[in-house]
From TrEMBL:
<keyword id="KW-0812">Transmembrane</keyword>
<keyword id="KW-1133">Transmembrane helix</keyword>
<protein>
    <submittedName>
        <fullName>Uncharacterized protein</fullName>
    </submittedName>
</protein>
<feature type="transmembrane region" description="Helical">
    <location>
        <begin position="38"/>
        <end position="62"/>
    </location>
</feature>
<feature type="transmembrane region" description="Helical">
    <location>
        <begin position="112"/>
        <end position="134"/>
    </location>
</feature>
<feature type="transmembrane region" description="Helical">
    <location>
        <begin position="78"/>
        <end position="100"/>
    </location>
</feature>
<keyword id="KW-0472">Membrane</keyword>
<dbReference type="InterPro" id="IPR036259">
    <property type="entry name" value="MFS_trans_sf"/>
</dbReference>
<feature type="transmembrane region" description="Helical">
    <location>
        <begin position="9"/>
        <end position="32"/>
    </location>
</feature>
Amino acid sequence: MTRRRLKELVFLLVGISTPVGILAVNASAFVMRHVTEFRVTIAACALVSGFCLNGLGAYLLVGRAATHTPRIYHEYRAWTIGVAVIAVIAWSAFGAYGTYWSMQDPRQLPNVAAVLTAVWLLLFPFFGIAASRYRDFRERRRRRRSDRREPLPNS
């Protein structure tokens, strides 16, 4: 990126930040003023978000199980997928209920229940993805070590 393009990008970002901020503050104020009407919508969004994030985490974990323990996975495939589906639905439903419940009184926002619900919704996918990535990291490191130990073939 050239120096001129970088300057243009900085000016663009600085110029856009204020109008976007004004729109965000006004939208937030509108939602806060009508939070009781928005509770169902926000809870439904939390449910959909939970399905997406938790589904991604579960998908990665199930894929990891299929890769690393193929015989056990194929023997218990239906059970594994069933447990993953139930966990995603339960985790997401609890998050949506927590979101709905925590927004009862707009005068009490922000509150600990809303923050803990948001953290709850992020825990499962975050740990699932982190565990999957950590497992990949350990496997690559193990392969590198074993590659270094192998003797070179004689030519």
